[in-house]
TrEMBL record:
<dbReference type="GO" id="GO:0016020">
    <property type="term" value="C:membrane"/>
</dbReference>
<dbReference type="InterPro" id="IPR032710">
    <property type="entry name" value="NTF2-like_dom_sf"/>
</dbReference>
<protein>
    <submittedName>
        <fullName>Membrane protein</fullName>
    </submittedName>
</protein>
<feature type="region of interest" description="Disordered">
    <location>
        <begin position="158"/>
        <end position="178"/>
    </location>
</feature>
<keyword id="KW-0472">Membrane</keyword>
Length: 178
């Protein structure tokens, strides 16, 4: 009297669908786990963190208001580590005098940026950041210029910080044959 699965097409279809659903769920779970633990995803996340930290630090280092000099220089120091931090700390008093005499306000806006190198194991990275820097003198109109900066970053317990900063070369720097 008991009906078998073979005799009931509805029961057979339900069992087949359940089997497919279980297989799909298993595959989906495995795919999700693999993606979440993929090294390339972690690398991409770190690259994004480096870019954000680098852009912010380069912007910080190109922004300074003589009316709030202490806060601006503290921000510079908070953005730096290593040799760059030592340079900023060592030359701070002299630099404060120069800015107070010049009475300028400098602001920077990031136009674009890119991570050019990233070594997650060594905790080092390099970025290139394009900025628009506006300098407002005490008298006269503000002057804006675009600049490209190269920054080296080092991972610290507080996050990624600039360890070196310089101007990027512009134009053809290689010698040309005549």
């Amino acid at each position: 009297m008991a009906r078998t699965m073979r005799g009931n097409p509805l029961l057979t279809a339900a069992a087949a669908l359940a089997l497919l659903a279980a297989g799909g769920a298993g595959w989906g779970g495995w795919s999700w786990y693999a993606a979440a633990h993929d090294e390339s995803a972690a690398y991409a996340t770190t690259r994004d963190e480096v870019l954000a930290a680098g852009e912010q630090a380069v912007q910080n280092m190109n922004t300074l208001d003589h009316r709030d000099l202490r806060r601006g220089l503290d921000t510079w120091q908070d953005s730096a580590t290593g040799d760059l931090l030592a340079q900023l700390t060592g030359g701070r008093a002299r630099f404060e005098r120069q800015i107070q005499q010049a009475r300028t306000v400098t602001s920077a806006k990031v136009l674009s940026g890119a991570v050019t190198e990233l070594d997650t194991r060594a905790g080092r990275a390099s970025v290139m950041v394009a900025l628009r820097i506006t300098v407002t003198p005490p008298k006269g109109a503000p002057a804006a210029k675009e600049s490209r900066m190269l920054g080296e970053l080092t991972r610290t317990p507080e996050g990624w910080k600039l360890s070196a900063l310089g101007q990027a070369p512009v134009g053809n720097t290689a010698g040309t044959a005549d």
